Amino acid sequence: MKKIVLGNWKSVGDTASNVVLLTALAQHAPAAGVELGVCVPYPYLPQAKAILEGTEIGWGAQNVSPFGAGAYTGEVHAGMLAEFGCRYALVGHSERRQYFGETDELIAGKIDRLLAANVRPVVCVGETLAERESGAWREMLEGQVRALVTRLGVDKCARAWFAYEPVWAIGTGRSAEPRDIAEAHAFLRRQLVALGVPQRDLVLLYGGSVKADNAQSIFAVPGCDGVLVGAASRVVGEFAAIAAAAARAVQGS
Ligand SMILES: O=C[C@H](O)COP(=O)(O)O
The pTM is what? Predict the structure, then answer.
């Protein structure tokens, strides 16, 4: 079974440190059955393309405009991402929902634009700590995926990847426990299948404080197709160790 390791640099990086990171990455072909990629800030897409092109490692963006080309000052549309060879774009990350007020409607529009440009949307969903502790996390997750399937339809949602990212585990050093990830993934799968998305098309990642020392236990979670890695994706040794754990998981499956 394939495993995906996707880095999210967030708003971190500069030309000099990126060269070191991308060059190190480019030197390690992903093991068979492992898909490796990095989502970089917009200005560094040409740099990622220049260094990673010709390798099997993909690159992508962390956001996209809900509009096409036109008078939308400050926006970057999906066609531009496609021109720079983006294989993926993150959508609906909790940091965008929290700091930029992104709604389900806006997120659905972005997914639509990405699919039309043949860029894979990686859609982030997840609950806050209060929702986890009160038990409301199931309603929260169900609401997030239902909102997208209702707006986009089954076929489009089947072409997106989903990343379960509990907000309380992001950047805190406190990853969700494997049993919590397994429970949330199983719940999300059930909901998406109930909404009509075929089980065979579902790709579900986990994100939130994934590191070298917990990657193996996360890849062992049944039905976990991969990880979305924030801070550790900016550390060469950490990201390489996570990719190596993915390769071991594939070999052992
Ligand atoms: O997209 C990545 C997630 O927000 C996780 O970030 P983190 O690994 O720094 O906790």
Answer: 0.97
